[in-house]
Design goal:
This protein has 14 helices and 28 strands. With about 625 residues, it is of the alpha+beta class. The protein has five domains: about 1-185, ATPase, nucleotide binding domain (Nucleotidyltransferase, domain 5); about 200-235 and about 320-370, Nucleotidyltransferase, domain 5, CATH 3.30.420; about 240-315, Actin, Chain A, domain 4; about 405-520, Substrate Binding Domain Of DNAk, Chain A, domain 1; about 530-620, Substrate Binding Domain Of Dnak, Chain:A, Domain 2. Strands 1, 2, 3, 4, 5, 12 and 13 form a seven-stranded mixed sheet that branches. Strand 6 (about 55) and strand 7 form a beta hairpin.
């Protein structure tokens, strides 16, 4: 598993271990292939192998991770972060229904930007928080193996979109890890079970992956060592946590006294009891779970749940997963009888009805559940890491692009559309918009490299999308598409979707680059990863600040006659404070605090003016 790394001076560097990481919603693990046995093994320490995906943000800014942080869910819920994976690559609107189950504060802004979490006046985003967990896993591996760990394979749900995958890569960089590849969890699970290793057979495999916070079902065709995803369906906000919440709801209906449980710490305490009930009954369905839940002032409620009650709580979740199986089979144009293997993944598959569901749907095959469902993905990631380290030749990897490809966005940021190690051929599209009213031209600049700022990457070419119809800022919908063929030729196109205006350019990404130059760019990206991500987050805060200043000024210009003097003056003061910070390129958290202050101050009368506008629009009309 050791990989010899050659630095640019030609000297042989210290051997390094490439690990596999399962970054989970509820628990995370790190694994490796032990060179003395050739087997994949999870890495454990005195606290065990599982690392709860929980972060305790201490006063002063230090962080605890895992078992040590989990107690804070009850004692300090406002500074104990969990289920970060559900927030990765998501906007405020995406997680609106999820917020009420959290003890910590997600800043409630009505826009599509990445969510932020505020603790003690400091702002964190899910990338930074995921990086804290990844760094803890990296350090766990280094302590256990007594070697430096700087490279990893990280798994994600097959249903993760590009934004969520890129957020996972950014988290790895911030943790000091070079992410060699992002691997789909079902592929990793199949590797763990040794599926696809017989080159003479073509296998069609269904992977049912039910974790704490995410679910996906994937159908893979494995031929000659190549894993091809035929179809995937799922939900990045569906998992065992939802069974816990369903049990909580049942108890709150059955025991009215629980309705006074409103404090965040008490809600988390009730959630943990519901989780304990689910685990206990899944292990012994004949028992009845009871718990004396203290309400304070000497009062308590004796909570009770039997297996029939657990089945009722989990019924809706199982139905959703069953519908996903049917949809995936339709998309793959397959009948259940054509599935040759079924694999169960994720700790929530310990709930017995999951196996019963799969055995009913696929009675002709044995359901693979002999490996620990918590560990199976991490073990597969370790096997993939071993392949990338050059130690295994029995699994074929498709051709991949050696360097990331992307375009320049506001503030000189590199927005990656095709990350390095992405298999080719491939096509990726992403929507953008204008930032200024009436903008009719948009320059598309294409770059290659691993740095967060385009100034430090290699420019491949540019073109101008002309004659965009003049519209307000944010209204045009411009799709930029990258199509990379098997020969490494890149075609970039841009299309304004409302008008149909198009433009494109053909680029050869590797033209003029030697292997040494590619290695140098990769090395630079790795060496500067942490400072690059920090610079990116700072620039994104600046971009958000400029956009808000622009919108706030337009707002008061259009509504000056409807605002009183105090509202006008208060808004202008906060705009001015934010502008000063932007002009000085102040610290990220200071800018975000000023953004929050302006948003919070203007929201009440913005809502008031919206009510006035709606009333005026409906005046004289019958509903």
């Amino acid at each position: 598993m050791a990989k010899i790394k050659i630095d640019l001076s030609g000297k042989v560097a210290k051997p390094q271990v490439v690990v596999g990481i399962d970054l989970g919603t509820t628990n995370s693990l790190v694994a490796w292939v032990n060179p003395s046995t050739g087997n994949a093994e999870v890495i454990a320490d005195e606290l065990g192998a599982l690392v709860p995906s929980v972060i305790g943000l201490m006063p002063g800014g230090s962080a605890q991770v895992g078992v040590l942080a989990k107690g804070g869910l009850v004692t300090a819920p406002e500074r104990t972060i969990f289920s970060v994976k559900r927030l990765l690559g998501r906007s405020y609107k995406d997680i609106a229904d999820f917020q009420r189950y959290l003890g910590y504060r997600i800043i409630d802004e009505d826009n599509e930007s990445m969510v932020k979490i505020e603790v003690d006046g400091k702002y964190y985003n899910p990338i930074e928080l995921s990086a804290i967990i990844l760094k803890a896993l990296k350090e766990k591996a280094e302590r256990a193996l007594n070697v430096e760990v700087v490279q990893a394979v990280v798994t994600v749900p097959a249903y993760f979109n590009d934004a969520q995958r890129q957020a996972t890569r950014d988290a790895g960089k911030l943790a000091g890890l070079e992410i060699l590849r992002i691997v789909n969890e079902p592929t990793a699970a199949s590797l763990s079970y040794g599926l696809g290793l017989n080159r003479e057979e073509v296998e069609t495999v269904l992977v049912y992956d039910l974790g704490g916070g995410t679910f996906d079902v994937s159908i893979l065709q494995i031929e000659d060592g190549v894993f091809d995803v035929l179809a995937t369906k799922g939900d990045t906000a569906l998992g065992g946590d939802d069974i816990d919440r369903s049990v909580m709801s049942m108890w709150q209906q059955a025991y009215p006294a629980l309705n006074q449980v409103v404090l965040a710490g008490d809600i988390q305490r009730l959630r943990l009891v519901a989780e304990a009930a689910k685990i206990a009954l899944s292990g012994n369905p004949t028992e009845t779970f009871t718990h004396d839940f203290a309400l304070g002032d000497g009062l308590s409620v004796l909570l009770s749940l039997d297996y029939t009650g657990l089945q009722a709580a989990a019924k809706e979740l199982l139905l959703k997963t069953e519908n996903c199986i049917a949809a995936a089979l339709r998309d793959a144009s397959l009948k259940p009888s054509q599935i040759q293997a079924v694999v169960m993944v994720g700790g929530s598959t310990r709930y017995p009805q999951v196996k019963a569901l799969l055995e009913e749907k696929f009675p002709h095959v044995a359901v693979n559940n002999t490996l620990n469902p918590d560990e199976v993905v991490a073990l597969g990631a370790a096997i993939e890491a071993d392949v990338l380290a050059g130690n295994r030749k029995d699994i074929l990897l498709l051709d991949v692009t050696p360097l990331s490809l992307g375009i320049e966005t506001a503030g000189g940021l590199m927005d990656v559309l095709i990350p390095r190690n992405n298999k080719i051929p491939c096509r990726v599209g992403r929507e953008y918009t204008t930032s200024v009213d009436g903008q009719v031209n948009l320059k598309i600049s294409v770059f290659q490299g691993e740095r967060e700022l385009v100034a430090q990457n290699r420019k491949l070419g540019e073109f101008i999308l002309k004659d965009i119809p003049a519209m307000p800022a944010g209204f045009p919908k411009i799709e930029v598409a990258f199509a990379l063929d098997a020969d490494g030729l890149l075609k970039v196109s841009a299309k304004e979707l409302r008008s149909g205006v198009t433009q494109q350019i053909d680029i050869k990404p590797q033209y003029g680059l030697t292997d040494e130059q590619v290695e140098a760019m990769l090395m630079a990206g790795f060496q500067h990863a942490q400072e690059d991500v920090t610079a990116r987050l700072h620039q994104e805060a600046i971009n958000e600040g400029h956009q808000l200043v622009y919108l706030a000024k337009r707002f008061i210009e259009k509504n000056a006659n409807l605002l009183n003097e105090d509202e006008m003056e208060g808004t202008k003061q906060r705009i001015s404070a934010l502008e000063c910070l932007l002009a000085e390129r102040g610290e990220k958290d200071a800018i975000l605090q000023a953004v929050t202050a302006l948003n919070d101050y203007t929201r009440p009368f913005a809502e008031r003016l919206m009510d006035v506008a709606v009333s005026a629009a409906l005046k004289g009309k019958e509903i």
